[in-house]
């Protein structure tokens, strides 16, 4: 099972209000189960694929990416600057029912897609029921 947590999100929102920052606290994401896989989409427009770092340690998926600030050139006057820059990160706690050894990831059109298969031991199993004095057997 996929679980989402971000204990500092409210603190970050409060800090943004106090300092009047337009920077988001986390990268937006969508997650869903499709058949025997969990699929997660992270919105990261303007991020170079080689700046994305994806790691799994002790059932925690960590996604980090960097969007550099535009170069300051002489004669350029910034009118509006709403696109956040810098390093972004997000952590997801993965349940033990997911196969973290077979995670796949693809980055296309500013969206990082991470696919995590359900572990074999978490998939439903059929149980054969015997007649008379025989015992039930589990077929994996």
From TrEMBL:
InterPro entries: A-crystallin/Hsp20_dom (IPR002068), HSP20-like_chaperone (IPR008978), Small_HSP (IPR031107). It comes from the Bacteria. Pfam families: HSP20 (PF00011). Residues 20-132 form the SHSP domain. Belongs to the small heat shock protein (HSP20) family. This is Hsp20/alpha crystallin family protein. It comes from Nocardiopsis endophytica.
């Amino acid at each position: 099972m996929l679980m989402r947590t971000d204990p500092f999100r409210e603190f970050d929102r409060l800090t943004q209000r106090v300092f009047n920052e337009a920077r988001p606290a986390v990268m937006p994401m969508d997650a869903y189960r499709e058949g025997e896989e969990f699929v997660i989409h992270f919105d990261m427009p303007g991020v170079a694929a080689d700046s994305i770092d994806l790691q799994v340690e002790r059932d925690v998926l960590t996604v980090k990416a960097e969007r550099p600030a535009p170069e300051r050139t002489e004669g350029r006057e910034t009118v509006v600057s709403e696109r956040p820059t810098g390093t972004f990160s997000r952590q997801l706690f993965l349940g033990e029912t997911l196969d973290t050894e077979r995670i796949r990831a693809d980055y296309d059109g500013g969206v990082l897609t991470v696919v995590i298969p359900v572990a074999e031991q978490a998939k439903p199993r059929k149980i054969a029921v015997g007649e008379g004095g025989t015992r039930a057997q589990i077929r994996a």
